[in-house]
Amino acid sequence: MKKIIIVIAATLFVINLSRAAAVKEQPATDSTSYEEPATLLERGTNIVLRLPETVSSADVNRGDVIQLEVYIDVNVDGKTVLRTGQFASGHVKKVKRANKFGAGGSLTLEGLHVRTVDGQIILLEGGTIQRVGKSRRALAWGVSTTPTAVCIAVAAATGGVGILAAAPIFIAQGLLIKGTEVRIEEGTLMHARILRDVKIRA
Predict the structure, then answer these.
(1) Cα–Cα dist 102/174, whole Å
(2) pLDDT in tens, 167-199
């Protein structure tokens, strides 16, 4: 009986020793997370954008999308979250083409989105570029009204009304004079702000 007990005890001892050795051989599980912590790009952060192509009031319509790009890196806690040359976009907020009688064109562009270094497309606010074309109303008025006034004066002085037939011609000449279209040139800068807080994996 004692021999049986000794054999059982020895067997259990060997089993436990084997289990302990197996536990030691198992690699420890590393619970450490190596994920890069998020960088907070705060609402209201200033951003400078650049217009890569010239836009003219003669060629665009209200609502048209325009391309922009980041002009200067934006860094947060030593990390670049918006990189120079990164894609951005805007749209034509207002446009008026040059018109008859010397009216000049006008154009307003507004920033909409920018792409971060981790690929997020985020909203912008406060970024606009506005230009107004040169008016030629004074010239149009001069071309039409001055000769017309001369015709009226001559007709009144001479009693001949035939000269008044030339007045509509001068008025028409004034109507044909248009103001200048406005161009926002390539390289023009736009200052905008980030609309809301964004977490970026920079």
Answers:
(1) 8
(2) 555 555 545 556 788 999 999 999 999 999 999
**Cα distance between residue 20 and residue 18, in whole Å:** 5
- Asked whether 116 and 97 are in contact (CB, 8 A), the reply is no
Three-state secondary structure string covering 92-131:
EEEEECCCECCCCCEEEEEEEEEECCCCCEEEEECCEEEE
Question: What are the pLDDT digits (tens) for 115-133?
Answer: 999 999 999 999 999 998 7
Secondary structure letter of residue 195 according to DSSP: S
* φ, ψ of residue 161 in degrees (nearest 5): -95, -5
Residue 57: which H helix or E strand, with range?
none
3-state secondary structure string across 123-160:
EEECCEEEEECCCCHHHHHHHHHHHHHHHHHHHHHHCC
Q: What backbone phi and psi angles, to 5 degrees, belong to 23?
A: -65, -40
CA distance 77 to 57: 41
Q: What torsion, rounded to 10 degrees, do the Cα atoms 154, 158, 159, 164 define?
A: -30
